[in-house]
């Protein structure tokens, strides 16, 4: 996936030169289907209690990995914010008088643009999981699915 042009920087933001190579590889295991075509249309955070319904589409090689998912109430979804620039270390999401460090934000703009949401699982139908609680554009690559933590003793 390539970007035509990175998002422009805002006042007080800071970027770095990115390393020449990568330390690990990632397989996208599917994609997320949502009602939102553009980033500006997405909610800032998904709503696991009210939706709207979004669909997680899992690719064929990984379908056996869904065994046991049906019946879970909540899942953690990890996804790849593929439109994000990755070089910002200080950001100014609200056009304030100063910027904030990337690791103090849940911004999608980060060195490894992995997003995480806890979602309510409504149903599983073949390769599709229907959930409430996502906040990404239609077609966003899926990285992983995990059950939400149980209550620890
Ligand atoms: C603030 S992030 C939060 C993501 C996730 N819930 C988290 O906390 O890690 C959500 C925003 O990312 C942006 N976004 C959505 N899909 C994206 C994509 N595929 N690439 C880059 N940015 C995206 C939208 O502006 C959306 O409102």
TrEMBL record:
S-adenosyl-L-methionine among keywords: yes
GO BP, one annotated term: methylation
UniProt keyword Transferase, yes or no: yes
Entry's Gene Ontology molecular function annotations: methyltransferase activity
Cross-referenced CDD domains: UPF0066
Domain TsaA-like residues, every copy: 26-153
PROSITE patterns named in the record: TSAA_2 (PS51668)
Alphabetical keyword list: Methyltransferase, S-adenosyl-L-methionine, Transferase
Pfam families associated with the record: TrmO_N (PF01980)
Family as reported in the entry's similarity comment: Belongs to the tRNA methyltransferase O family.
PANTHER family per UniProt: TRNA (ADENINE(37)-N6)-METHYLTRANSFERASE
Protein known as: tRNA-Thr(GGU) m(6)t(6)A37 methyltransferase TsaA
Lineage: Bacteria, Pseudomonadati, Pseudomonadota, Alphaproteobacteria, Rhodobacterales
